[in-house]
Design brief:
Chain B: It is found in: Cell membrane. The complex is a heterodimer. Chain A is built from 13 helices and no strands. In chain A, 80% of the residues lie in helices and 0% in strands. Chain A has a domain of 183 residues: MetI-like (MetI-like fold). In chain B, helix 8 links the parallel strand 7 and strand 8. The chains are: A mainly alpha, B alpha/beta.
């Protein structure tokens, strides 16, 4: 019950954030020089200046920015995200078609990041000051420093081209199939590596700090095996700070998808976003940004809930 | 045979500045059911001694040598699994600060029943019942409802009671209480100590009570060991220690206790402070602070001696003190009087 109240409150609190995201994106898109009409006109030698004026009026692009924003916001609130100028299709249909691809990739990246980061962090914390800790520090530093586009290319070069272990062409299989997992490995690893390296360091620091606390000595003094002491008593306390950072890193996974999808030819939102920016498809840019915003807000909301589940003191405050 | 016999225990810490000998060749014994006090200033090695009993000294600390015999079994020879069977089961520990000794993310009840489930062959339900019984026994009202409370929902006094319940949960033979009331206010302290005394009686548990408070020792303990710079400087029954202290350090500690009706303007203290344990003074480690120190004290390190006979003391000796006076090597002797006022200096019974 407490948790439900907590969730509702946090959800309501995220509405102003999304509003802010939409204002900023809208403003930024309109600050960029050129618009979709100039792109269309330039692409078609037969189009005249009069056509451009007519198109701008038709798309509502000649209104003042704030009027355009209010019109757009009104439409969005009724579920209409506007049309794709070039093709005339509904932009939300375009997004829905690509979203599952990006979600699958992001999710895979996430699971990969957590699977490496949490056990790796625990291992480093328990063996702090020893070789295992140094190895994990080196791995984490490399993971943070290597740019993801380069990592992606190297993975393709080694595992697809040289060793021929993973496919290189665009995924042809239906998204929800086991063979799809095979396609997901390389881009998923590429997208998850940086987040994994960050999280592993935080997990290590957080756990090393917890291991010095007196409740750990007290748990050992009860005669509990070291495994129980670490995996029951220390782990739960260490995860509290990791959860917060994990939510922040969602953003890096989302933004990473733009680069990684381009490198791997992954038909997701990232590629669509790049195309939309190139031709100034305002409605498409806005809807993808908004989606990303919602996604990051949701990740933070989820983190807050996990946080409250892990730590009874947080629940107590709400 | 004594329940616990510590022989020549030495514990060192490797620090950047050098090797700290926190416990230096320490020997003592505790009988079954006995209440044994360990007193001394901060840094005397009391807590390190306590943690050594459970082999919980962590790096950079190390138990260098010695034996810790519990019913004749040497704890220092045991494997990790064997010592885990001893911890919480035969020897349990009460920590100084209950707030930090409790894990904030698990319920108090869970933390008590966890040890019960682990050591005794209890089902979850039986363990829960025993934990509730214990909570009730240590004076937590409405124990059944409180079982599922988290530590932050308990007051400081209640947290310490819960920690005591946790320590008693597997009916240990020896309870090591490391300044169990330091973090509490005076009224709560008195209540908890009285409770601890009753419980030790009821569970027939020996207690090693670590404290810097001589008043607590007088209230509770049968025998006392005074520690200074990692060594035992005096060991005696509580009564003997208060009526007839044999070591100048013990005398200093006792004269530092402020009393009601005292008309001195300032508190009396022992001048100076505990020596640096990396380079302890030559001879007697107390000599720089001792008002009776002579040239001999600077040169010769005194051995633990039976003060009446002047013979070297053993673990079994009833009294021992580490001062050259008792081997006849002091010229001036120890020049102090002990005045016993019935209202203050004598051991008092069950003060609340």
């Amino acid at each position: 019950m407490d948790l439900l109240k907590f969730t509702v409150r946090r959800t309501l609190a995220s509405i102003p954030v999304l509003f802010g995201v939409s204002v900023i994106t809208f403003g930024l898109v309109h600050l960029t020089p050129g618009d979709v009409v100039s792109q269309l006109v330039a692409a078609n030698p037969d189009a005249s200046q009069a056509d451009a004026v007519r198109l701008r009026r038709e798309f509502g692009l000649d209104d003042p920015v704030w009027v355009q924003y209010i019109n757009w916001l009104g439409d969005v609130l009724t579920g209409d995200f506007g049309e794709h100028f070039t093709s005339g299709r509904d932009v939300s249909a375009l997004v829905w078609a690509r979203l599952p691809e990006t979600l699958a990739l992001g999710l895979f990246g996430w699971v990969f990041a957590l699977l490496i980061a949490i056990p790796g962090g625990i291992y480093a914390a328990i063996n702090r000051g020893e070789i295992g800790d140094d190895v994990s520090r080196f791995a984490a530093l490399s993971g943070i420093s290597i740019p993801n586009f380069w990592l992606g290319l190297m993975l393709i070069a080694v595992f697809s081209v040289q060793l021929n272990l993973f496919p290189t062409l665009d995924p042809q299989e239906p998204l929800l199939s086991t063979s799809m997992l095979w396609w997901l490995v390389l881009p998923g690893v590429t997208i998850g590596t940086a987040a994994s390296a960050n999280l592993m360091r935080i997990m290590r620091t957080s756990m090393a700090e917890e291991l010095n606390k007196e409740y750990v000595t007290a748990a050992r003094a009860k005669g509990l095996p070291e495994r129980t002491v670490v995996l029951k008593h220390v782990l739960r306390n260490s995860l509290i700070s990791v959860t917060t950072i994990a939510a922040f890193l969602t953003a890096s996974i989302v933004s990473g998808s733009v680069v990684v999808e381009t490198v791997f030819g992954w038909p997701g939102l990232g590629i669509l976003f790049v195309e939309a920016i190139n031709v100034r498809e305002i409605n498409l840019i806005l809807v993808i940004t908004l989606f990303t915003g919602v996604f990051i807000v949701l990740a933070n909301l989820l983190a807050d809930i996990v946080y409250a589940l892990l730590d009874p003191r947080i629940r107590h405050d709400y | 045979m004594a329940l616990l016999e510590v022989r020549d225990l030495t514990v060192t810490f490797y620090t950047a500045e050098g090797v700290v000998t926190a416990v230096d060749d320490l020997s003592y014994s505790i009988e079954a059911g006995e209440k044994f006090g360990v007193v001394g200033e901060s840094g005397a090695g009391k807590s390190v001694t306590a943690l050594s009993l459970l082999r919980l000294i962590e790096s950079p600390g190390r138990i260098e040598s010695g034996e810790i015999l519990l019913d004749g079994d040497d704890l220092l020879e045991m494997t990790e699994t064997e010592i885990q069977e001893v911890r919480g089961n035969r020897v349990a520990m009460i920590f100084q600060d209950a707030q930090t000794a409790l894990n904030p993310v698990y319920t108090v009840g869970d933390q008590i029943s966890e040890a019960i489930r682990h050591h005794l062959d209890h089902t979850d339900e039986e363990a829960r019942e025993r934990a509730i019984e214990l909570l009730d026994r240590v004076g937590i009202p409405d124990a059944e409802a409180r079982y599922s409370d988290y530590p932050h929902e308990f007051s400081g006094g209640m947290q310490q009671r819960a920690v005591i319940a946790m320590a008693l949960s597997c009916d240990p033979d020896l309870l090591v209480a490391d300044e169990p009331t330091t973090a509490l206010d005076v009224t709560t302290e008195a209540k908890i100590l009285a409770e601890l005394e009753d419980l030790a009686e009821e569970f027939d548990t020996a207690v090693q009570l670590i404290t810097h408070d001589l008043g607590v020792v007088a209230d509770l303990c049968d025998r006392v060991m005074v520690m200074y710079a990692g060594k035992s400087v005096e060991r005696a029954s509580a009564e003997d220690l208060f009526y007839d202290p044999k070591h100048p350090y013990t005398v200093g500690l006792m004269s530092s206790i402020p009393r009601i009706g005292d008309d001195r303007d300032r508190l009396q203290t022992i001048p100076g402070s505990m020596p640096d344990l990396i380079s302890t003074p030559t001879g007697c480690s107390f000599h720089p602070r001792c008002p009776y120190a002579e040239e001999a004290c600077r040169r010769t390190e005194p051995a633990l001696t039976e003060p009446e006979t002047g013979k070297p003391a053993t673990v079994g000796s009833e009294r021992s003190a580490r001062c050259l006076e008792y081997t006849g090597e002091l010229n001036g002797g120890l020049d102090y009087d002990v005045t016993v006022r019935d209202d203050a200096a004598a051991p008092t019974e069950g003060s609340q």
